[in-house]
Amino acid sequence: MSDLPFRLKDRCRRDLSSHIVTAQYQDPIISTKDGIQKIENWKERVNGLPTVEEELNALIKPKNMRKTVYIMHMPPYGVGLDDAGENYKVGSQAIYNFIKTNQPLMTLHGHVHESPVFSAKWFSNIGDTVCIQPGQGDDFRYVKIELDTMKYERIKMSLE
């Protein structure tokens, strides 16, 4: 997860090595086995962690990427699956680059539950890769995927 200015930093990383740490709303904290602890120097700490890009590049690559499905919580940047409203994009450039370079069969994403409401998109393509982000609104949504035919549909399930 990229570093956003929210307080809890358990899974935060810089997206790319060029990423600049943003101003924080409150003192950053992290969960430990001893409870919540304040991070004294967030910029120093996050600059010492691997970036999302470095972690993705360190993954073991399958022999046939075209038969691979990746599940990545954060969506790729700028393809309509990361729209948090008012043209505010919160996806990962590192994930976008990884997908574009490696071209897996499919990627599945979450994180920005409201994105399909704002962008009217729940799937997109990066090259030959299908990227899906089912999103949620006032109803439960899921996607049925037939990998052998590459047919997929978004299904709305009423919670009543």
Structure characterization notes:
Helix content is 17%, strand content 22%. With 160 residues, it is α/β, with parallel strands linked by helices. It folds into 2 domains: 1-57, no CATH class; 59-157, Purple Acid Phosphatase, chain A, domain 2 (4-Layer Sandwich). It has a 4-stranded mixed beta sheet with strand order 3-4-6-5. A two-stranded antiparallel ribbon has the order 1-2. Strands 7-8 form a two-stranded antiparallel ribbon. It is globular and about 50 Å long.
Q: Percent helix among the residues?
A: 10-25%
The number of strands is 8
So what's the overall shape?
A: globular
Output the helix-strand order.
EEHHEHEHEEEE
In DSSP terms (H or I, runs of 4 or more residues), the helix count works out at 4
Rg, nearest Å = 17 Å
Question: Which runs of at least 5 residues are low in confidence (pLDDT < 50)?
Answer: none
Provide mean pLDDT, rounded.
91
Essential attributes:
160 residues, alpha/beta, Purple Acid Phosphatase, chain A, domain 2, 2 domains, 4-stranded mixed sheet, two-stranded antiparallel sheet, 4 helices, 17% helix, globular
